[in-house]
Amino acid sequence: MADERQILVASLREHFEGIIEATDLFLQNLSADNGSREELEAARGANSVLKSECADWRKRALETNGALKALKGQFAELEQRFDKMCLLCTVAVGILKDYAPDLCAKYSAELAALIGTEAATEPAVA
Fold first, then answer.
1. Whole-structure pTM over 0.70, yes or no?
2. Is the pLDDT reported for residue 96 higher than 80?
3. What is the largest CA-CA distance in the chain?
């Protein structure tokens, strides 16, 4: 996802910078050709708008980047919590198998029925 975002940002940057360069070249040519003052001012106004839009897109890209970094951090935290919960569940199942094999088998069958699978058929440990 980060690669796609970077490609999009680079593409937008190239697009807007290309437009700005073309507008600057147009202004230079217009000045060299002694174009009318109205045309020159209109071109300069358009160039200012394009530069402003480019700055807005850059600002949005930076805001999006910051939001993505925050989400990545939150996801990493959730992933760690999930890993801890899995470990706790594994320990709990191990304890049930060791100290209450009948109870473990009962809940294993009930859980399997709930999710529509067959219960694990491991031999009970006495």
1. no
2. no
3. 99
